[in-house]
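Design request, tokens follow.
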């Protein structure tokens, strides 16, 4: 069976740019603190009426245009998100309808900041099983919908955005080589949104308590992220007989530049091999991997045949890495 590979990448970002200086006006924070502690300088915020599905649909439309495909050519769509338009139906259904993917089935995947990575792995299995030829994977989050804009410990970190990739069968020697994923639910309270589910259905009381907002134990998540990010990369490369030095590029989840710098140091790789768009977009949760990948491609920093790793950590706690040989073989 063929391996799956990424044959197109597209992104969508809302127009409104929120700089650290903008946040300084309403929060007890400073540009200097945010830049030095996170590496983030600005992030995007969706306009009124903009949702996770509308952002995702823009990204998918651009993706099909780039690859010269019609909406009817797509077999399946997987949407990684923690900010679905509604609890149900799935945002995949909403994007399917907006773009007119008339022959596709699809579903949402919830794994927080590891969601896009898990969806990439899942979509790749659908290709390599022979079941499908074209699977669209979307990572989209309107984080401003679940962030308490008065909480300086989270409001400075997150942004809105979307990205999409197309998975197709690769020629021999290209595409996905393997993956290493783990979940550890014992860390479920390090990063979570308490209300709005079956445990604490939304009510006037939950809203008054701010339980419809994301909350986190920043230090615990930070430590987990630094350790797991390096560990996941090492595990997946070792499993296939490589070392981190063989990697042309690591496309990591974008949470904090200090996490990326620490992982870079632990892996002993050159800093320019750790992709980062944190300064421009902050943490867009499920959109970080396609946004970082698109940036690397735009800069011409990725070439056919390059060995790369996608790596992510997130709420759950979830984590993992995926190794691939970039390109499809014929392009
Ligand atoms: C949230 C995070 C940036 C905080 O950075 P930190 O260096 O760990 O900072 P601390 O939490 O130790 O806080 C240090 C101080 O800065 C303060 N602080 C927190 N946010 C601040 C802000 N935006 N502006 C100014 N001060 C801030 C804290 O209140 C604390 O003050 P105190 O010492 O008086 O209590 C960092 O822990 C982090 O990035 N964690 C991972 C979060 C993450 O990635 N989540 C998503 C995972 S996918």
């Amino acid at each position: 069976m063929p391996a799956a590979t990424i044959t197109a990448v597209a992104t969508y970002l809302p127009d409104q740019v929120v700089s650290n200086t903008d946040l300084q006006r309403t929060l007890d924070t400073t540009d200097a603190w945010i830049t030095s502690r996170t590496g983030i300088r600005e992030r995007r915020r969706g306009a009124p009426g903009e949702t996770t599905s509308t952002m995702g649909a823009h990204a998918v439309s651009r993706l099909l245009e780039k690859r010269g495909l019609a909406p009817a050519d797509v077999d399946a769509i997987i949407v990684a998100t923690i900010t679905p338009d509604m609890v149900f139906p799935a945002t995949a259904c909403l994007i399917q309808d907006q773009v007119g993917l008339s022959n596709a089935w699809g579903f949402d995947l919830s794994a927080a900041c590891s969601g896009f990575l898990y969806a990439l792995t899942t979509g790749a299995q659908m290709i390599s099983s022979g079941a499908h030829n074209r699977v669209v994977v979307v990572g989209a989050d309107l984080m401003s919908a679940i962030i308490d804009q008065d909480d300086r410990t989270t409001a400075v970190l997150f942004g809105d955005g979307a990205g999409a990739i197309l998975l197709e069968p690769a020629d021999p020697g290209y595409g996905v080589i393997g993956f290493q994923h783990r979940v550890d639910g014992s860390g479920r309270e390090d990063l979570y949104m308490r209300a709005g589910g079956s445990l604490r259905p939304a009510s006037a009381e939950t809203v008054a308590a701010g339980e419809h907002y994301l909350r986190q134990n920043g230090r615990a998540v930070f430590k987990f992220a630094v350790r797991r990010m390096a560990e996941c990369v090492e595990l997946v490369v070792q499993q296939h007989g490589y070392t981190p030095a063989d990697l042309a590029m690591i496309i990591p989840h974008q949470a904090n530049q200090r996490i990326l710098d620490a992982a870079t140091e632990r892996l002993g790789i050159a800093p320019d091999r750790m992709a980062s768009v944190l300064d421009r977009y902050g943490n867009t949760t499920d959109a970080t991997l396609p946004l970082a990948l698109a940036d690397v491609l735009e800069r011409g920093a990725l070439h056919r045949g390059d060995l790369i790793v996608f790596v992510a950590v997130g709420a759950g706690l979830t984590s993992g890495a995926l190794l691939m040989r970039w390109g499809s073989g014929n392009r």
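Comment from the thread starter after seeing the answer: thanks! Residues 4-172 form a domain with the Peroxisomal Thiolase; Chain A, domain 1 fold (CATH 3.40.47.10).
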